[in-house]
Amino acid sequence: MTTRWPRPIVAIRDIWPCAVVLATLMFGIARADEPAPKTPEGQPAVKQPEEKAAEPQSPAKDPEPKADDKKPPADPPKPEPAENKPAPDSPKPEPPKPEPAKPEPPKPEPSKPEPADSKPPVEEAKPKTPEEKPVDVDQTRMGEFVGAVAVSHTRFEQMGLQIRPIGGGGFEGVLYSGGLPALERRKKPPTTLIGRRNGNDLVLSGARWAIFVEPDHCLLLDSEGRQAGRLDRVVRESPTMGAKPPAGAIVLFDGTGTQQFTEARMTEDGLLMEGASIKPMFQDFNLHLEFLIPYMPTATGQGRGNSGVYLQSSYEVQILDSFALVPQDNDCGSLYEFRAPDVNMCFPPLAWQTYDIAFTAARWNADHTKRGNARITVWHNGVKVQDNVEVPDKTGAGKPEEPILTPIRLQEHGSPVRFRNLWIIDRGAGGPGRFPPRPEPSPDESVVHNG
Fold it and tell me: Residue 416 class from Cβ within 10 Å (0-12 exposed, 13-18 middle, 19+ buried)?
């Protein structure tokens, strides 16, 4: 017997179309109400506009949304003040022009690199005057020093020291027993010294003591390091410096002109240069002149401040930087290559010095034979160094003797020696008077100026 199930009232195939329509409606309502689907990280999925790889976007423009993402236009944004910058997501307006009242501060210009050897303009760019030039360290140690030195445990002796630079930090010196060179005769010969400067330190050796030299003094230490004495710097001046011409004298040069010379040159500051020839000619005369020897530390021998006074163009009284030397017959104060001075009275270079020269000419017969030699007396810086010396012939490069008058010349020998205050007394026209003059001569209005 076949069992029959009861027939449903409505068959599924009959309601399927309606169910599909109903499910579609319900799914649409639910999709509209549910939130947007989430990414695996739990963040809302936002659909980004596609970027064009081949055409890079300008930084001033925002990406343009797609058509399906466009929204109804919103109210236009309110314009911002000119000084405010535009919003990042809004179109970048044209940059406003800077207002004159508030200009943008200029950026500091990078400093230009200076050369490695450049210095501030105050030191290098501005030319230095002679007063601003640095002093030569060697020159500060040059000079004369005097003081007492212990020569035994119970006895002190006066010592004089002269020091001169010879270039490259080298020095020479002479130590005098009894004081600096002067008129008196000395029983002991001077001691020659040598030394070399290391930085600011100078030590002279060659004597019983080591001599440490400072700009204003010297210390003498014995072999055990004990101080034996101190010598202080002194600056001497000739007693005839600036002597005024006495009555009857002829002024040869006073800084105002060279009328008394056949050849002469002057410096801008009124000094007579080397290489001058005096116009008047004399037989017997007394001559006063002042001279300055240049500072030439690296020069040697006859190249160191060389000039000379040629009496009647035949007999030379040498001018040379012979400071701090044992004198020879070609040094300052000598009758050149004929006789050395009795004492070296040469002052340091750049110090004014004096010559006072008494000259008596040779005597001649009518047949041009000589019956008497010339005689010369020289006071160097007030001290007699040549005492009525008889000279049988010309000296050095002087002209041969003649029974005629010839001019006095100031030698040109390549060194910038300077002269001032030259005057002469013609002993043939008057008496010899008092010569050399006193240190403080009285003024006399009868001085003769031959112009």
Answer: middle
Dist. CA 167–CA 178, nearest whole Å: 29
At residue 276, φ and ψ (nearest 5 deg) are -115, 150
Q: Which long-range contacts (CB under 8 A, 24 or more apart) does 187-192 make?
A: 189/326, 190/326, 192/326
Closest CA to 162 of 66, 227, 234, 106: 234
Residue whose C-alpha is closest to residue 149's, from 223, 76, 220: 220
* Beta pairing partners, 390: 375
DSSP 67: G
Helices vs. strands in the chain: H and E counts, helices first: 2, 22
pTM to 2 decimals?
0.68
* Two structure tokens written together for 351: 């110090």
Strands 201-205 and 191-198: antiparallel
pLDDT band at residue 428 using 50, 70 and 90 as cut-offs: confident
Structure tokens at 401: 């003797």
pLDDT tens per residue, range 334-387: 999 999 999 999 999 999 999 999 999 999 999 999 999 999 999 999 999 999
Amino acid, res. 118 = S
pLDDT in tens, 114-124: 444 444 444 44
What amino acid occupies position 245?
P
Q: Alpha-carbon Rg of the chain, whole angstroms?
A: 53
With beta carbons less than 8 A apart as the criterion, state whether 335 and 389 touch.
yes
